[in-house]
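Lab notebook, bench 4. Continuing the backlog of folding jobs that were queued last week. Each job is logged with the same field layout so the records can be merged later without manual cleanup. Today's entry covers Beta-ketoacyl synthase-like N-terminal domain-containing protein, a 271-residue chain. Filled in by technician R.K.

JOB TYPE: sequence-to-structure
TARGET: Beta-ketoacyl synthase-like N-terminal domain-containing protein
LENGTH: 271
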Amino acid sequence: MTPLTATIEGVGFWSDGLPGWRDACTFATTGRLPETAPGRPSPQLLAPNERRRAPATVAVALEVALAACDAAGREPASLPSVFASSHGELAITDYMCATLADQPQAISPTRFHNSVHNAAAGYWTIGTGAMQAATAISAFDATFAQGLLEALVQIATGSEAVLLVACDGASAGPLARVSRSEGLLGGALVLSRTPRPDAPMIRVALADGGIASGPTRGPLAERHHGNAMAPMLSLFDALATGAPRVTLKAGPERILQVTIEPTPEPESAHA
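JOB STATUS: finished
OUTPUT FIELD FOLLOWS
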């Protein structure tokens, strides 16, 4: 596979106890946690009533998406987006299954419309007024790698910039025994085809075989290893600590080899 490249213009991050990318970087490099942290994201994109009703996975997805767009200086509505989630909202899925089994007439319409896998993408496009394409991806423990690959392919085939959002929440009920996930975790990247000063570039190649790995299982991966989206943390640990490469599981016997490079200086800088 020909390597795919992109500039990382902006990063968004939220997890239990680390409510921002700056907090995550501080923890990854010093081990310090913020003194206070909210128990749930509160994305300002939503009206107060919608903010209260939105599932936790939607809230964290919108929170990190907005943060990444702000960091990149990009208008959210201008970006095509890729939303990656291993499970969607498993707590609502558990509720739906239990209610259908015991009292199907009692299904909540609000919970029903939040049960679909592309709920976060729908809230995002409505809240931002985005008319660009929005893609929702699920690929079990290869979900983040496949989301990253999709975003990079869109850039390689003509998009100037793409928003990648990844999130998962806690599983519940019988599903927790077969689809384990703990806590709440979300990350977002604004990726573009244009180099920027002081913005890292990534070079990604799909390969057969190999083992997914990060920078010796970094601090973020250690802290949040129980979440279904933990595979993304190898890359976020590398970005936070300056590690030059990671590998991500991309499916059975497949990996994504990711190299992180400084943005090359313009030729005029050497004149």
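OBSERVATION: The two ends are 35 Å apart (CA to CA).
SIGNED: R.K.
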